[in-house]
Amino acid sequence: MTSTEQALKSGAGTAHPEHLGHVIFIAAAAAMGGFLFGYDSAVINGAVEAIRDRYDIGSAALAQVIAIALIGCAIGAATAGRMADRIGRIRCMQISAVLFTISAVGSALPFSLYDLAFWRIIGGFAIGMASVIGPAYIAEVAPAAYRGRLGSFQQAAIVVGIAISQLVNWGILNAAGGDQRGTLLGVEAWQVMLGVMVVPAVLYGLLSFAIPESPRFLISVGRDERAREVLREVEGDGIDMDARVAEIEHAMRSEHKSTFRDLLGGTFFFKPIVWIGIGLSVFQQFVGINVAFYYSSTLWQSVGVDPTESFFYSFTTSIINIVGTVIAMIFVDRIGRRPLALIGSVGMVIGLALEAWAFSFDLVDGKLPATQGWIALVAAHIFVLFFALSWGVVVWVFLGEMFPNKIRAAALGVAAAAQWIANWAITASFPSLADWNLSATYVIYTIFAALSIPFVLRFVKETKGKTLEEMG
């Protein structure tokens, strides 16, 4: 038995270990969508300055090209659920894989800035689909005893995808002699960076043919016998299949299809609990976390760091992101969601404040003074670590648990939409804000990190150890 199987088996109780390897494969294959989510989101980091130079555009136009993918993300996330209910989870994965592939090829071989923006929207749509389909599929296929641990594969895959994209970018830059516009394989290096995503996209598509459709979907379309076969594959033969199918059918019939109208009420249009969910989503983005993944190479180069070194620092930041995510996965059920969020907020305030201080110094020969440069670098890693071990994971846990059953699906959709919009606002504004005053930009992010502390203390209730039914 592998270490992964042993970790999953720990505390699993009623599961059937003889099927564990197969279940892990199924979850890992589905989580490839999360890998592509992370990879496609962060790979643009390596191309930002080359795109600016190639098309001779200013910061405002550059920001729109980078941020426009988030429009596709929002549309993909909003439509994926209904699409999956109509054509199945596996078919949606395959469509997503095709869109990732098309986006990678188009982004690597653009005719102009405009079609590059179009290919990024296509990639964003695929990201949005993957962000919804992967977790839903894993939750429906995984045996109950393993569901939480297998569900964490999606978040782990996202942060690994971010790290791998930065490592690949760094390798390509070195192969091109440290020049983002250097020639490699007959095109410019940044084009190769964007095109490499074809490899994991095709792998995702191939893996989707090797895993079964969700039993829940199969039952919903009357394919009960095939659903029984899939349930035997993942849960073993020691269960009453007729009773299990009847249980799923009953749960589907008794579900309340929450709508936007269910969220209305209270003093300010939405019910208070919906505003708290929106607040968590907005704070998660307004601390500026995606600046670290979309613009970090540009950021370090703007204060005098060599391009090759700036790409390497982007990779080390991504490794810190993985470490923080693992810490969160270990402690979120031990110390609770609320304490972890508060610890993260305090750490983010320290990291962001130190970055703001370091960036306030004038450049000397195009570089930050040595002391301030090292403090800025260390502070950036502190910020990402504390975000990853707290808000990066905790917000999604809160959003999945905090809403009453009657409004959960609709409220989660609104909160997720708020997150994409907030992400877009930060991504689209950073280049212009950095041109205006980089230190002041980080002061703004520090203020939002500081405000998240009283927000959590005043409005957010602990959900650790409570059943979903206890949420109302």
Topology:
Layout: H1 3-9, H2 20-43, H3 48-55, H4 59-67, H5 69-87, H6 89-108, H7 113-141, H8 147-175, E1 183-184, E2 187-188, H9 189-195, H10 198-208, H11 215-220, H12 224-235, H13 241-254, E3 264-268, H14 272-286, H15 289-294, H16 296-302, H17 307-331, H18 337-359, H19 370-388, H20 391-401, H21 408-459
Antiparallel strand pairs: 1-2
Your description of this structure?
The chain is mainly alpha-helical. It has 2 domains: about 15-210, Growth Hormone, Chain: A (Up-down Bundle); about 260-470, Up-down Bundle (Growth Hormone, Chain: A), CATH 1.20.1250.20. About 75% of the residues lie in helices and about 0% in strands. The protein contains 21 helices and 3 strands. The chain has helices spanning about 5-10, 20-45, 50-55, 60-65, 70-85, 90-110, 115-140, 145-175, 190-195, 200-210, 215-220, 225-235, 240-255, 270-285, 290-295, 295-300, 305-330, 335-360, 370-390, 390-400, 410-460, and strands at about 185, 185-190, 265-270. A two-stranded antiparallel sheet has the order 1-2. α8 (about 145-175) packs antiparallel against α17 (about 305-330), α14 (about 270-285) crosses α21 (about 410-460) and α16 (about 295-300) crosses α17. The longest helix has about 50 residues, at about 410-460. The chain is globular, with a radius of gyration of 22 Å. The two termini are about 40 Å apart. Residues about 10-15 have low confidence and may be disordered.
